[in-house]
Amino acid sequence: MTDYSLEISFDPDLEEIVQGRLFLTRSIGSVAVQPGVIRAYFETAVDRDAAAAALSDFDVAREETPSVDWLRLYQQSLQPLFVGRSFVIAPDASLIPADTGRHALVIPQEQAFGTGSHESTALCIELLEEVELRDKRALDAGAGTGVLALAMLRLGAQKVVAFDNDLDAFRPLRENRARNGATLPLFIGSVEALRGGRFDVITMNILPEVIVRLLPEIKLHLDAVLILSGILMVQREYVVDACERHRLRLVNERQKGEWWAGTFSV
Fold first, then answer.
1. Closest C-alpha among 64, 89, 63 to residue 154
2. What is the pLDDT of residues 165-221, one digit of tens each?
3. What is the C-alpha separation between 188 and 27, in angstroms, rounded?
4. Which of 92, 140, 193, 205 has the CA that lies 20 to 30 A from 116?
C-alpha cells in the first residue's frame, strides 16, 4: 500500500487560507512541518491531485511513500502475556513461542478491554483453570473481546456462547473468533435473548453494579458455576451479599492488587 501526501509551502500569514482550502478537499489529516509548510495526507492519488489543483497558486510537491503499518509494528514489539498456569496471550501470532505448551490466544492490543493484560481478565482465567470445563456448556456475558469465551473453549468446553450489549464489541468478537479458529456463537443483545438456554459455567467480567442487576436473570440460565470479575476489593462484600441473596455460594476467590474475582456455585 502507498501513502499519498502533498507538501504545501506558503507565506505563514496565509495559513488560514491554506487550511480553509484543505478543509474542502478529501484530506484525511495534515501536519505542520514548519512555519509556512504543511504536509497533507490523502487516501488516493486522485484525491491528492485534486487538492493540488485547488492549491495551485501555492508551491505544492506531491509525494508517495510505502505505507507503514505502525500498529502492527508496535504489536510485534510487544511480549506475550503468560496468564495463569496454562495460557499465553499475544497481539500477534508471531509472538507466540513455537515451543509453548500453553493454550495460545491472539488478541490485538488496540482492543483495550479484555486483552488479558488487565487484572480482572487474568483473575477470571485463573479461576476458570480450576473449574472442570471439558464437555461443558458455557456462557460469557458481557464478552468484550471474547477472550474469556475463547479461553473456555481452549479448556475443553463443548460449546460456548458469547454476547455483549455494546455494538462496538461485535467487530472484535467476530475478528477474534476468526483469529483463533474458534466455533463461537455470538450476538449483540441482552440476557433475554438467551430465552431457555442453560449453561454449566457462566463468566461475567463487567461492572459490579451491572452484575448485581443481572443476577436474577443470569441465575435462570445457570446450572453450576458462576465466575464474577471486574470488581474492586472495596466492592467485594456488595457483590458477595447480592449473590447470597440469590442463593449463590462463594467457593473460591482471588485478588490481584485492588481487583477481586470470585467463583460461585448454585
1. 89
2. 999 899 999 999 999 999 999 999 999 888 878 999 999 999 999 999 999 999 999
3. 34
4. 193
Per-residue model confidence as pLDDT tens digits over 22-50: 999 999 988 888 999 999 999 999 999 99
160 neighbors 223 (Cβ within 8 angstroms): no
The structure's pTM equals: 0.71
Q: Which residues contact 99 (CB under 8 A, 6 or more apart)?
A: none
- In angstroms, the CA 22 to CA 30 distance is 9
Residue 236: what are its φ and ψ, rounded to 5°?
-55, -55
Place of cell 509453548: 100
Residue 131 backbone dihedrals phi, psi, to 5 degrees: -110, 145
- Considering only CA atoms, which of 200, 223, 202 is closest in space to residue 136? 200
Judge whether 91 and 109 are in contact, CB under 8 Å. yes
d(CA 207, CA 80): 27
Among 165, 168, 172, residue whose Cα is nearest residue 148: 172
Cα separation values, 254 from 41, 86, 258, Å: 49, 17, 11
